[in-house]
Amino acid sequence: MSNNKIPQYDNATVEKLASHIKSIIEILGEDPNREGLLKTPQRAAKALIDNTSGYNQDASRLIKQALFTHDGEEMVIVENIEFYSLCEHHVLPFFGTISIGYLPDGEIVGLSKLARVVESQARRLQVQERLTRDVCQIVAQNIKNKGVIVVCEAAHMCMKMRGIEKQETTTATMHYCGDFEKVELQQQFFNLLNLKNNQKK
After folding, report:
1. Where in the chain is the domain with CATH 1.10.286.10?
2. Domain with CATH 3.30.1130.10 in the chain
3. Cα–Cα distance, 97 to 153 (Å, whole number)
């Protein structure tokens, strides 16, 4: 989980998931009753609940909790928001960063809410392309703006530990709307990202 609170689990849900995980362990040829695996079904069930907790979050509601009037029009960027997600094709992790830019139109949002939007969409069975699009659309639909752009870069374990097994491969996706359809604004966004990255070196 992304916060420091001890998560609460529904015992019935945990046990239902754990029973299936125990069966999977047996099918794989392992003994779920040996010492190292005795509590694995429950642990794995809780991990799966944590990693799909986005299904219980309302991203629009999160944004609306922290909207403020603003008379500026300059680009706002929150960069390198870390995320962890599960590929819906193999239920293997993919992870990376998302950067969000938007052009205010009388309104801004508390910066931490953008990170929470990413978390709400990442913590579910996903594909990177849809994750990128959904974050962009949620921001665009819930903040008064003239344009939104979202860029995601991620590494996929389904490419690293199975199948083609290419260890250095990353995938980049982008989605935008409004004024960010203009190439010059996209370039400005990327120039600002590069400037910040260079300043950190």
Report:
1. 11-51
2. 59-200
3. 6
- In tens digits, the chain (201 residues) has pLDDT values of 445 566 789 999 999 999 999 999 999 999 999 999 999 999 999 999 999 999 999 999 999 999 999 999 999 999 999 999 999 999 999 999 999 999 999 999 999 999 999 999 999 999 999 999 999 999 999 999 999 999 999 999 988 887 777 777 899 999 999 999 999 999 999 999 986 565 555
Please give the Cα distance from 156 to 87 (Å, whole number). 8
Asked if 186 and 71 count as a contact pair (C-beta separation under 8 A), the reply is no
What CATH number has the domain spanning 59-200?
Answer: 3.30.1130.10
- Whether residue 125 contacts residue 86, with contact meaning beta carbons closer than 8 Å, is answered with yes
CB 115 within 8 A of CB 129: no
Strand ranges (DSSP E) for 3-104? Answer: 67-69, 76-87, 93-104
Q: Give pTM, 2 decimals.
A: 0.90
Q: Euclidean distance between the first and final Cα of the chain, in Å?
A: 30
Question: At the topology level of CATH, where does 11-51 sit?
Answer: GTP Cyclohydrolase I; Chain A, domain 1 (1.10.286)
d(CA 28, CA 176): 44
